[in-house]
Structure formats: structure tokens, C-alpha cells
């Protein structure tokens, strides 16, 4: 007999009375491959035995076949989205996208698995990604880390952090953490903040989402699933990045690419974030790229569309330029 449903938060998750949690989307997995037919090879490496978490590495085949000592590659650390609840680096949508970025930008990519809500609510995801960043930087001297691909191929003078939706949110916060903890030597060249999941109790401006049902729906997912321990609900500084108390001056990178989709509920928050960065005393450069007639993570949903390929080229230029 099937257990009684206690709650469901569509389209993400259903929670049953016996404690079972069923994710409704984002469950498919694609295997790694050392077959160079698509010009990129991939493999999974455990970075956190404690939590059984891995990173999925992507390496252009030409670099994999090259002799040691040849030119090092930019390093991209990618953080997947999914409302802190669904998806993983092993999902087809993220495997294929990060592979495409690695190929087009000729970079080594590290796609991070992290613990997800509701079993592991915020801040578990932030803690895990920070652990993965530290693990990645343990290879910075070219021989100290456990993974040969990173030791041999990563240029730690060109490290980029990027993510979409929840991953865009996490990218910002961990770039802030890198700036605060300079003694750790985690130097990030730039961050790509793509359709970031930034929110707050009140609209950020008159053009932000005003519909009460939409706003309460987003708040419900955050407060009841992703981060039920937040004292201030959607005004938690992890979610309300543009709040009055936020200070971006310590952001630990040189440049930021902010990607905005005009039909995305988070669009005005992303634009406010870029504007606040530009007005801050941070000192880096901000670039905004906006597709006014597209929705949230359209580039993942329609990766072969002209606008998705246009954005891919922008992200590639950000990394390789």
C-alpha cells in the first residue's frame, strides 16, 4: 500500500508520511565516457568520502592526449541548478551542457555534486561546494592533489566559477567566501551568475514580480523545502542577496558575467544584483547579457537554439578571453 502524501512542491518533489521523498524530475543519469568521439572525455572522482559526493570532470580530448608540460587550460568549476532540490552533474541536461562548454572553451571543467534538500537543507549545498572548491585547489601546485587531470591540465591563474539558478546563487556566495578567506589562496578569475535564484519578501523594484501567488509559491519552496531553518524566511541573506545589508566589496574575483532571461521570475533580481555590483567599491568588471524574450534556463531547455548558442559563445568568451 502506497504511503500517504504529506506534501508536494510541484514540479520538484513529493513527500510521503513514511518519510519517503520522491523527486519528480531530474532523476535521469548519463554515464561518463573516455570515448573521444565528441571531442570531450569525462570521469567521476570522489571529493567527499564522508558524504559520498563526486565531481564530474570534463577534459577536451586533445588536451587529454597531449604530452605532459603542454599548455595549461582554464579551469571551470560548475554548480548545477534545480532549486537546491533536484538535478545533479550526472543529469543529461548538465552533463551535455558542461561538456559543450569544456569543448568550446577548451577548458577543464569540474561539475560539482552537492547534497540536496529536503534531506539536506541549506546550507548543506554551500558547504559541499566550498569543500569541492578546496579539494580542487589542493591541486594548485601541480602535484599535491589526488587527480591527475587537474594536476596536469589546470591553470590555477584562470579559475572560473559558474552556475545557473540555485547554482548561480551559490557561485556568488562562494566567491564572497573566497574573498573573505584570502589566506586559503583560492583565487577566482571570474564568476558566471546565470539566471540566479535571488529573492526577497518584497519586490526589488516596480518591475519585479508583483503577483502574490507567484511570490508566495517561491517563498514556500524556500521556506518549507530548501531552507526551512532560515530565521528570516526569504529575507535570509543567502536568498535575499540584494537586501539592504548586503555588501559586495569583498567579492573574491576580477570579473562577473550576469546572464538574465527577460521572462524569468528572477530577472529583475539579477539586474538589481548587477547594478549593485557596479555601484559597490568591489573594483571588478561586470557584464550583463540579457535575452528579453526567453525564460529561466532557456539555454539548458533548448541548447541548440540560436539564442542558446549565442549565450554559449558569450560564456566561452568570458572563460577563454
From TrEMBL:
* Any one GO molecular function term: carboxylic ester hydrolase activity
In terms of Pfam families, this protein maps to:
Abhydrolase_3 (PF07859)
Gene3D superfamilies (UniProt xref): alpha/beta hydrolase
User: For the Alpha/beta hydrolase fold-3 domain, which residue ranges apply?
Assistant: 76-299
What domain of life is recorded for the organism? Eukaryota
InterPro entries, sorted: AB_hydrolase_3, AB_hydrolase_fold, Carboxylest/Gibb_receptor
**Signal peptide range:** none
Q: Which stretches are annotated as coiled coil?
A: none
Q: Which family does it belong to?
A: Belongs to the 'GDXG' lipolytic enzyme family.
| PANTHER family membership | ARYLACETAMIDE DEACETYLASE (PTHR23024), CARBOXYLESTERASE 5-RELATED (PTHR23024:SF529)
Protein known as: Alpha/beta hydrolase fold-3 domain-containing protein
Organism encoding this protein: Capsella rubella
Amino acid at each position: 500500500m502506497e504511503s500517504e502524501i504529506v506534501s508536494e512542491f510541484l514540479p520538484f518533489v513529493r513527500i510521503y508520511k513514511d518519510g519517503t521523498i520522491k523527486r519528480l524530475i531530474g532523476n535521469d543519469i548519463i554515464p561518463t565516457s573516455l570515448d573521444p568521439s565528441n571531442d570531450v572525455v569525462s570521469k567521476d572522482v570522489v571529493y567527499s568520502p564522508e558524504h559520498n559526493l563526486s565531481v564530474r570532470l570534463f577534459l577536451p580530448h586533445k588536451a587529454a592526449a597531449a604530452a605532459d608540460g603542454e599548455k595549461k587550460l582554464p579551469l571551470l568549476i560548475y554548480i548545477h541548478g534545480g532549486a537546491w532540490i533536484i538535478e545533479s552533474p550526472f543529469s543529461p541536461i548538465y552533463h551535455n551542457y558542461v561538456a559543450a562548454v569544456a569543448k568550446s572553451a577548451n577548458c577543464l571543467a569540474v561539475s560539482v555534486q552537492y547534497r540536496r534538500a529536503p534531506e539536506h537543507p541549506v546550507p548543506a549545498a554551500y558547504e559541499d561546494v566550498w569543500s569541492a572548491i578546496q579539494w580542487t585547489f589542493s591541486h594548485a601546485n601541480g602535484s599535491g592533489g589526488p587527480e591527475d587531470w587537474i594536476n596536469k591540465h589546470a591553470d590555477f591563474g584562470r579559475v572560473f566559477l559558474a552556475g545557473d539558478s540555485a547554482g548561480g546563487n551559490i557561485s556568488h556566495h562562494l566567491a564572497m567566501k573566497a574573498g573573505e578567506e584570502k589566506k586559503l589562496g583560492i583565487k577566482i578569475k571570474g564568476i558566471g551568475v546565470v539566471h540566479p535564484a535571488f529573492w526577497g519578501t518584497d519586490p526589488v523594484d516596480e518591475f519585479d514580480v508583483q503577483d502574490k501567488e507567484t511570490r508566495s509559491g517561491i517563498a514556500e519552496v524556500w521556506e518549507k523545502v530548501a531552507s526551512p531553518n532560515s530565521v528570516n524566511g526569504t529575507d535570509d541573506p543567502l536568498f535575499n542577496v540584494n537586501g539592504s545589508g548586503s555588501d559586495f566589496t569583498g567579492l573574491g574575483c576580477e570579473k562577473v558575467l550576469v546572464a538574465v532571461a527577460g521572462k524569468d521570475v528572477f530577472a529583475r533580481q539579477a539586474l538589481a544584483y548587477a547594478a549593485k555590483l557596479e555601484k559597490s567599491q568591489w573594483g571588478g568588471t561586470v557584464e550583463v547579457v540579457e535575452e528579453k524574450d526567453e525564460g529561466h534556463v532557456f539555454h539548458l531547455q533548448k541548447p541548440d537554439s540560436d539564442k542558446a548558442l549565442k549565450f554559449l559563445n558569450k560564456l566561452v568568451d568570458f572563460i577563454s578571453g
